[in-house]
Fold this protein.
Amino acid sequence: MVVLGIETSCDETAVAVVADGVVRAEEVASQVAEHAAYGGVVPELASRRHLEAIDPLVTTCLADAGVALADLDLIAVTRGPGLLVALLVGVQYAKGLAAGLSIPLIGVNHCLAHLYVAVAEGGGAYPYLGLVVSGGHTHLFRVDGPVEFTLLGHTVDDAAGEAFDKVGKMVGLPYPAGPEIDCLAAAGDATAVALPRPMARRDNLLLSFSGLKTAVRTHLERNGQLPETGGVPPAGRALADLCASFQQAVVETIAPKVARAAAREGLTRVVVGGGVAANRGLRAALGALPGLDVHFIRPAWCADNGVMVATLGEARFRAGVRHDLDLAPIPGLAPLLVDEGVVQDPA
Ligand code: KG4
Ligand code: ZN
């Protein structure tokens, strides 16, 4: 089966051709540099860029894969969660292609696809505990199959990646700040700045990052380092120490919840995906959790990509899921999970 995966939920136009489970080609057109000028993703700009990029990207990807349009058997496209005007571009393009080629179309959940790409790496044996940590999500799922997901827990406020990006912005790092904080943290002292681990000790599977973000702001303000109140942001050693302390707090907020969820569900296999899954501190801490076999998605596929869409799309298609040409984007994760029949059990 030859599958074309299409992803346009945020600021990356991404496509991939996966044939009989083998990735034949993939392409990503990132808009990150353009949005950086605004300190975050501008939906209207993202939509326009997706519209310009999508068709040439598909043409290039098919050529790289040595596949003709007529060889495609299935079009898989992200239908949510994400920015509505961005999602619309991919969904409408996918519909046009599927209708023109008279082949099936399947809409895919971006958040679940961040986990499911493990299959393309030879991992993801069921059942497993899935942790999605990205700019938009920090969610824990139990995964029993391509259509059997249970939401176990989630952040009650910001996503982990959002916290990285907002803290980065406070100290003048360019958007998205996660990768740079990761690099700076490697040279810093994680005990230098005392920061909270919100909700980490609570006996539930809920997470929170908003209080941590506020604690960083308060620390900067007290030390005359918050630019928006006239301070001079930390640099050199002080910046590295702050990054290391912040990153450690994020890691120590997430790790106990992963351990708790695995124990509660009796799971030993864990899959970690999404942009923040590339973080070296998080990988080290989760990899060291006793009794758990943790599969980290390779860094290139932690970021948004077409392979994850093609992989989950094919698996769901094989499991009998079907979508028609009236497929609509669903921007919010909660309504999308309801639509997909995902059991929600945040405890
Ligand atoms: O999955 P993704 O590409 O897009 C969403 O679906 O949100 O995730 C992007 C997020 C951004 O917040 C970015 O700062 C963060 O992932 N990120 C990282 C790292 N690489 C990307 N955060 C921490 N450490 C990293 N190495
Ligand atoms: Zn993503």
Observations:
- The chain has two domains: 2-116+301-340, 125-300.
- The longest strand covers residues 22-30.
- The radius of gyration is 20 Å.
- The chain is about 40% helix and 20% strand.
